[in-house]
């Protein structure tokens, strides 16, 4: 298997605060990989280390087979980054925002037009960034990550703060990149988004990965949290642990005609994270 991104023993502290503590991960090429955790868990710091923006205290990382602490300009052309603290120049038009980066990358202006079309901003090419909606600004930030047609995309909370329609548009673009064989590494605290998009995920809490795997595998692993939810004839709902121990009580509810519907509730990433950390993933 070819790995697009690897990390081994990554640690990072800011003063006395340890932000990352022994991070190990491997991201297969061509996958969407999600790093999930609440704000302050260390997600953005890890992206900065993987992409060579910050050096870790210890450990090693690589991207496309190149060590993250020795990336060349040619290496950097192979990945694109969309981060929350990478803003846009509000006085410049969409076209001129991308033109600035085209000059840095040595790209022809024709690339700008194709990227704006790709993210649905062709009609807004001359519009200043200050006049864009939040969803359109998100598309412009994503367009910058697309400029070099990278093999790997690092997307830090790409749909944070967007309305449902704008967020769904960004998700469709992410899925389209995977269909082209690209690798996508995204951070999010949105468990539903991760379950919908990601092939594999890692749950990050206080700088430590507490679980890794596919969303479905992780939820199955914690299947002991499955519950039986019963809607009663008086309009109320009751829950019972899933298992043989609930059989007698269910049978009685059915015999008495009190049970109207019965279904199982599967554990999701939120309940798994809560079990492992005592915290809400979406906090």
CATH homologous superfamily (4th level) name of the largest domain: P-loop containing nucleotide triphosphate hydrolases
User: At the third CATH level, what is the topology name of the largest domain?
Assistant: Rossmann fold
What is the CATH architecture descriptor of the largest domain? 3-Layer(aba) Sandwich
Highest-level CATH class of the largest domain: Alpha Beta
Main sheet overview: 6 strands, mixed
Low-confidence stretches: none
Structural class: alpha/beta
> Number of DSSP helices?
10
Strand residue percentage: 25-35%
Principal-axes shape call? globular
The whole-number mean of residue pLDDT values reads 86
Radius of gyration: 22 Å
The sequence of SSEs as H and E is: EEEHEEHEHHHEHEHEEHEEHEH
Separation of termini? 35 Å
Query: Could you give the order of strands across the largest sheet?
Result: 6-7-8-3-9-10
Number of beta-strand segments? 13
């Amino acid at each position: 298997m070819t790995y697009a991104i690897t990390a081994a023993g990554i640690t990072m502290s800011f003063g006395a605060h340890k932000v990352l503590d022994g991070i190990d991960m491997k991201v297969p090429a061509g996958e969407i990989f999600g790093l999930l955790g609440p704000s302050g868990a260390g997600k953005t710091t890890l992206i900065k280390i993987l992409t060579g923006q910050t050096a870790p205290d210890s450990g090693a990382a690589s991207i496309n087979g190149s060590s993250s602490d020795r990336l060349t300009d040619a290496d950097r052309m192979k990945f694109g980054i969309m981060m929350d603290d990478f803003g846009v120049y509000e006085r410049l038009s969409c076209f001129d925002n991308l033109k600035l980066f085209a000059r840095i990358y040595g790209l022809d202006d024709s690339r700008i037009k194709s990227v704006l079309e790709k993210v649905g901003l062709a009609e807004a090419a001359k519009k200043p960034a200050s006049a864009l909606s939040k969803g359109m600004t998100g598309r412009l930030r994503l367009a910058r990550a697309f400029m070099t047609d990278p093999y790997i995309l690092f997307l830090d909370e790409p749909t944070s703060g967007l309305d449902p329609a704008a967020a769904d548009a960004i998700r469709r673009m992410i899925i389209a990149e995977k269909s082209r064989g690209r690798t996508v590494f995204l951070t999010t605290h949105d468990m539903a988004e991760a379950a919908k998009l990601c092939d594999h995920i890692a749950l990050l809490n206080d700088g430590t990965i507490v679980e890794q795997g596919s969303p479905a595998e992780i939820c199955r692993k914690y299947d002991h949290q499955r519950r039986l939810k019963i809607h009663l004839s008086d309009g109320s709902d009751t829950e019972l642990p899933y298992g043989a121990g609930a059989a007698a009580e269910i049978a009685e509810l059915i015999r008495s005609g009190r049970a109207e519907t019965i279904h199982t509730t599967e554990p999701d990433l939120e309940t798994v994270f809560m079990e492992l950390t005592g915290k809400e993933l979406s906090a």
